[in-house]
Amino acid sequence: MATPVLDKVEKDSAASPYITVTFRIRRFNPEVTDEAQWQDFTIEIDPKERVLDGLHKIKWDVDGSLTFRRSCAHGICGSDAMRINGKNRLACKTLIKDINPEKPITVEPIKGMTVLKDLVVDMEPFFQAYRDVMPFLVTSGNEPTRERLQSAEDRERFDDTTKCILCAACTSSCPVFWNDGQYFGPAAIVNAHRFIFDSRDEAGEQRLEILNDKDGVWRCRTTFNCTDACPRGIEVTKAIAEVKRALITRRF
Ligand code: SF4
Ligand code: FES
């Protein structure tokens, strides 16, 4: 494809913070072609801006057909996970200056999921696995008249896994998931962990049985890709190991 060049920014050459950066983006439009292909866009951008800002510049000023998801732009909604320079990251949390802007910055959709258009993948199987582990508090008995109390120690037990923003960076970096999309994947296990180890919840056994399935937690090969990929710093592999241990000991 041709290389569009954007150079509309007025700059005072000496003081300008702008540099020229090439974004090499994996593009796919099922209405036009069966094959994805790379397209280069060269723009002027402040290296202190984020990859998401670069994608916005391209979409708004060069090619409005460029398609990607984003919402909060501040690392909270989890909608802009993508493969940037070969690594899963949130575009809104990745500064241009931190990823060697002297070379083309590659941007691709996350792996292991069907690409719908450009950087947008079908997240439905991912969210189905999430729903399957019952990611909500299950209790029996009458509604309490006040909050359900929990000690600081009991809360600490699952604090790490409450931080998940369902971005899928972990699941889509997992080689087991690449080979077999039936695997529940790290994110679903992280969200099961969040409730299994919650002292107020009563469905831990049920969730463990769901993850005892052939596509469940035993498929994990402890490659640590998930932990490396998580933009929230969650110790994903550790959480998976704790769920495995709970399955063996039935103590949680
Ligand atoms: S565990 Fe981390 S990488 Fe995985 S979905 Fe949650 S926030 Fe994203
Ligand atoms: S746009 Fe919400 S996490 Fe990046």
From TrEMBL:
Keywords: 2Fe-2S, 3Fe-4S, 4Fe-4S, Iron, Iron-sulfur, Metal-binding, Oxidoreductase, Tricarboxylic acid cycle. It catalyses: a menaquinone + succinate = a menaquinol + fumarate. GO terms for molecular function: 2 iron, 2 sulfur cluster binding; 3 iron, 4 sulfur cluster binding; 4 iron, 4 sulfur cluster binding; electron transfer activity; metal ion binding; succinate dehydrogenase (quinone) activity. It is an enzyme of class 1 (oxidoreductase). Pathway: Carbohydrate metabolism; tricarboxylic acid cycle. Its EC number is 1.3.5.1. PROSITE patterns: 2FE2S_FER_2, 4FE4S_FER_1, 4FE4S_FER_2. The keyword Iron applies. Residues 19-113 form the 2Fe-2S ferredoxin-type domain. CDD domains: fer2. Residues 154-176 form the 4Fe-4S ferredoxin-type domain. GO terms for biological process: respiratory electron transport chain; tricarboxylic acid cycle. Signal peptide: none annotated. Its cofactor is [2Fe-2S] cluster; [4Fe-4S] cluster; [3Fe-4S] cluster. Belongs to the succinate dehydrogenase/fumarate reductase iron-sulfur protein family. This is Fumarate reductase iron-sulfur subunit. It comes from Streptomyces kanasensis. The lineage of its organism: Bacteria, Bacillati, Actinomycetota, Actinomycetes, Kitasatosporales.
